[in-house]
Amino acid sequence: MAEYSTIIVKEETPLAVITLNRPEARNALNMRMVTELVDALNGIEKKDTIRCVVITGNDRAFSAGADIKEMESMSPIDMVKTGHFFPLWDKVGHYPKPVIAALSGYVLGGGLELAMSCDIIVAAEGTKLGQPEINIGVMPGGGGTQRLTRAVGKYKAMEMILTGGMIPAEQAHALGLVNRVVPQEAYLEEAKRIALEIASKGPIALRLAKEAVLKAEELPLSEGLEFERKSFYLLFSSEDKKEGMKAFTEKRKPEFRGA
Ligand code: CO8
């Protein structure tokens, strides 16, 4: 396992838990952290034994967004040259395994954009979510205007993005932005519990099902339905389909091998 300075990666087979680890900066995402996250996700992607990923921070902050001190001196050309955070959005946004965000404390700007690129979001009571970029003279640049609007609708997204205000996890839950809100001490455990349940399913079916849901945000209904139907047909060639249906008939738990 590679040595990282801004994240901690722990394999708890069949899960991998990635912890953002710049507590002194409320887990602000800097270029180093982005590079390390992409590297870690690339490594995990290749391991068949890891079937689901949890990304978390600490109790005070999942992440307070992009590192403002690092961005202060950056020019547009620096951003073009480095791709800035694009490699991370691209990696998480199209990740072949399910990714669960386990949130606590501040989840702001690029931190919320990272959480929204995940597939399921669990938050501790008292978590604060927001897109405060407007307060520092910019706007969301990592998908916030698009993903937040798709998640909560135009009016709430406008309010959050144009005022830069934060909303509590309980409100985010009511708006459909967060799957569940749990007591502070339980958010990581709850995320892992869901991750373990997902990890017990067939990896190929998970991959195609995730891909199909993501397509729903991009394709017209007829094309999305076609993608779904073809993926469904494709799964009929898998060993896991045979095992799943056989196990049902034999009244036992299936053992999916990802084949
Ligand atoms: N960047 C850099 N440092 C930060 C950040 C940040 N985003 N957030 C907090 N810190 C640092 C503080 O500067 C402070 O450092 P120091 O001790 O050296 O002074 C330390 O973390 C602790 O912060 P606070 O003392 O402020 O802690 P509080 O608990 O009182 O407050 C807050 C926490 C509310 C999170 C507050 O720090 C804050 O408002 N932070 C900034 C939040 C923000 O504006 N985020 C948006 C950043 S812009 C962004 O995310 C754009 C993403 C676009 C990416 C895609 C590009 C293509």
Short structural description:
The chain is 46% helix and 16% strand.
User: What fraction of residues sit in β-strands?
Assistant: 15-25%
Query: What ligands can be seen in this structure?
Result: octanoyl-coenzyme A
Largest sheet: 6 strands, mixed
Distinct helical segment count: 12
Instruction: Report how far apart the termini are.
Output: 26 Å
Counting helices, strands and paired strands, the structural category is alpha/beta
Strand arrangement in the largest pleated sheet: 1-2-3-5-7-10
User: What is the count of β-strands?
Assistant: 10
SSE pattern: EEHEEHHHEEHEEHHEHEHHHH
- What portion of residues is helical? 40-55%
List the helices and strands and how they pair.
Elements: E1 7-12, E2 15-20, H1 31-45, E3 52-56, E4 61-63, H2 68-71, H3 76-82, H4 86-93, E5 99-103, E6 106-108, H5 110-117, E7 120-124, E8 128-130, H6 144-152, H7 154-163, E9 166-168, H8 169-174, E10 180-182, H9 187-199, H10 203-215, H11 221-235, H12 239-249
Helix pairs in contact: 1-4, 6-7, 10-11
The structure holds octanoyl-coenzyme A (CO8).
